[in-house]
Amino acid sequence: MKIGILSQFPQLYSTQRLVEACQSRGHEAVVINTLNCYMNINSIKPSIHYEGTELVGFDAIIPRIHASVTFYGCAVVRQFEMMGVYAANDSISIARSRDKLRALQLLSRKGIGMPVTGFANKPNDIPDLINMVGGAPLVIKLLEGTQGIGVVLAETKTAAESVIEAFLGLKANILVQEYIKESNGSDIRCFVVGDKVIASMKRQGPEGDFRSNLHLGGCGEVVKITAVERKMAIAAVKAMGLVVAGVDILRSNRGPLILEVNSAPGIEGIEQTTGISVTEPIVEYIEKMVAARKTNRPIIA
Length: 301
Ligand SMILES: Nc1ncnc2c1ncn2[C@@H]1O[C@H](COP(=O)(O)OP(=O)(O)OP(=O)(O)O)[C@@H](O)[C@H]1O
Ligand SMILES: [Mg+2]
Ligand SMILES: [Mg+2]
What we know:
Residues 104-287 form the ATP-grasp domain. Keywords: ATP-binding, Ligase, Magnesium, Manganese, Metal-binding, Nucleotide-binding, Protein biosynthesis. Its cofactor is Mg(2+); Mn(2+). By secondary structure, the chain is an alpha+beta fold. It is 34% helix and 27% strand. It contains nine helices and 16 strands. The strands form four sheets. The protein has a five-stranded antiparallel β-sheet with strand order 14-13-12-15-16, with helices on both faces. A four-stranded parallel β-sheet has the order 2-1-6-7, sandwiched between helices. Strands 8-11-9-10 form a four-stranded antiparallel β-sheet, with helices on both faces. The protein binds adenosine-5'-triphosphate and magnesium ion (2 copies). Residues 115, 139, 141, 145-149, 151, 177-180, 183, 187, 205, 210-213, 248, 250, 259-260, 262 line the site of adenosine-5'-triphosphate.
């Protein structure tokens, strides 16, 4: 197969590992810088051009769309879909999961547990909004933040009111969320491919930070997840329609709660913490899907 890896960063560990996994399973891997793709949208033969030539002959793509380029990245993935190329994460699912509000709304419809979350537009909604999620302390999040940036813990009602006012004054879209204190600055990251959790780790934030993101200095350790957590992670990925995803779960007093589903989950942290290759299963999954598409057999993966 010829597999395109959509990434702006060819030197990144994750990009390199995906290339290696494709090659070790006998496929051709091409790293494509998403932002350098330009598209010809027409009803006869939609195409993508790249550095002066047309991209042809691809069987599948693995999108690694960075949060800062969601709009353009999804357009490129969608164009590949229009050309009949299999996308291991399609454009609709990436867009769904990237917007934390949309994602939580979809998860809530499936009855998947999550911290109580509020969303508002007008500043005069603030006191009731704060009460709705159980009062302070509470967490305030930018809708499209990532790597823990734009996730704030407001310890008091006054702090919460001023942070919410400031964000809304800047026209930022924010979520207001119940703070799960008992998770103690840690969460569980499950790496899912298809309908399987391939690897999981517990992430613990640095001393004094409630955020567990590895990019902010958190560290990972191997963890055994429960059957309920496994089921929940898989259901969340299915609700998004993703095939490759990183699911963040908080362990709360009322059981596991989903925080979010990431469509371009980090690969370095989970592989180094667990010693499990998560890239091989991605390529294996793509092989099954592409083969099933060709023969029109029902897809069992
Ligand atoms: N409601 C909450 N209660 C307790 N801790 C929370 C809550 N929300 C977020 N956190 C902590 O903050 C971290 C970052 O939050 P979240 O995953 O929502 O943001 P992110 O910026 O999208 O991160 P990622 O890099 O995983 O995409 C979480 O991993 C968790 O440790
Ligand atoms: Mg995220
Ligand atoms: Mg997260």
